[in-house]
Amino acid sequence: MIGERRRPVMDADLVIRASLAWLLMAAVLLIAGLPAILGRQFNEGDDIMRLLQVRDWLAGQSWFDVSQYRIDAPYGSGMHWSRLVDVPLAAVILVLAPIFGQPAAEHVAAVVVPLATLWLAVLLIGRIAWKIGDEEATGLACLSAAIAAPLLHQMRPMRIDHHGWQIVLFMLAVNALMARDARRGGWILGGALALWLNISMEALPMVLGFGAILLVRWLRCWGDRLWLTSMMQALAAGSALLFLMTRGLAAGMPMCDAVAPAHIAALAIAAIGATGLARTETPRPLLFTLLVLGTCAVTGVVVLLQIAPQCAGGSFAGMDPMARDIWLANVIESQPLWHHPAHLAAQILVPALVAIVVSLRLAARSSAWLHRWHLEYTALLLAALAMAVLLPRSSGLVAALAAVPIGIQMKQWLRQLRKLNRPGKQAMAVAGMVASLLPAMPLTLLMQAAPSHASAPPSAAESCDVGGALAALGDEPANILAPIDMGPAVLLDSPHRVVATAHHRAHKGIGDTIRAFSGSDEAAHQILARRRIGFVMMCPSQAEVQFYRRMSGSSFADRLAEGSTPDWLMPITHEGDRNVLVWRVIG
């Protein structure tokens, strides 16, 4: 479709411009993140759990088994994560471990792999600008991507969870829409989406978005029907193949939070229906085409719910009520954008809205294939923005898309700065560049200029480093009751097990952790006995512990924080962080 300009798939100039933009931000990220890198401080508990999953695999756990046997103690818990994200990390560790040892190799992998995903994302973004613009617009699009905060958040050093790879696969899918050949483009698109779905079911809304765009292509021109059929074929076949590659033949219980046989069956039905309709060369009436494709889609959903009826309640159906109502309802990254600070909203909304306006203007000034392309790009921007508003942790997708129109607009603004002598228009161009590239700067400056006593800076009293405390527990694996957010840190450098980490598959452990800390001493004692807990650990200043204390004025957490220890707990002294309190269960 795209391709009036006969350019190769990848050009050396494109790679150079993308790499220069990447090198600039990689250096900034390394310098800014140096304390965290040197201190081996991961960004989130998910990053620690990802490293633990890689460790377990390299230590002999089956490729097909992604369970975490040290959470939901003493039982262990399954995980919905894909092994695919483990492969790049494991590759770096396997290469470097014989030379530097595994701890150092893990450390290097945690820095190198996120930066590698950033390079791939910038390259794919630059390729879109390079296909529809010129060299200057390409360089500026790459630069816009390389300084987009939502993008960098998911690809900075020590950020090794799957979100960066989601952005890379999303941009690969967008690039596939530009292919000259419908069959090849559809298969690349469907393959990218199959990989993305295997990594995370968060891809599903954008899968529907791409499908809608290809459906419009089909309805507009019967000859373009191969786009949708090829995408559906690749998506169904790729999902089945990836399931076998990562889960094996032992399907186990039906899953709703990861691609499973039920989802594959639904995709296969839709793909077969679309392929059958597309086999005829004679164009069918629009209403007939919609009716057939709609029937196939509905049939697929019915089959999905017949195989896995519990999926009608979503990915979190059947969760422990306490985990659902207290933990999941308060997970900030799952809250819509209006629950987040204004500066975060600005970082997501302002560049996206600028990009949408620019993309629509480009469509109005274009014709033929380029006009249609800009309209499709605008539709993708709107879909990604809607997803980011409802699920802000997906904001890297809209930031990546927005970089291309912003890069094209940046070229125009820079031209105005060079050629215009009127200060007013020059000021407007500068304001536009600041709003597009650094949307949170005005809010940050305003907050800095307006003194506020709403929150005090972090102090030593709020630290919670569990490393020193763990050394006092010995090397014999024990079951530990700790706050949910402390769980991954306990697991990272110890052989011990914890009742909970912030992962919904371990919802029973999450529920019991909340019940124990927010309930009475007697209720906590019963949970500890049932789970054979050997130690209790917490930091009274931790936000999660403060939350438990507010739930009940005489809770187990409240009494421990006040020093009122039940006689079945014995305080443990240690040489580590004094804010970390530890007790041995003695009865």
TrEMBL record:
UniProt keywords, alphabetically: Membrane, Transmembrane, Transmembrane helix
Transmembrane segments: 20-38, 81-101, 108-130, 164-180, 186-219, 226-246, 258-278, 285-308, 344-363, 426-447
Superkingdom as given in the UniProt entry: Bacteria
Protein's recorded name: AcrB/AcrD/AcrF family protein
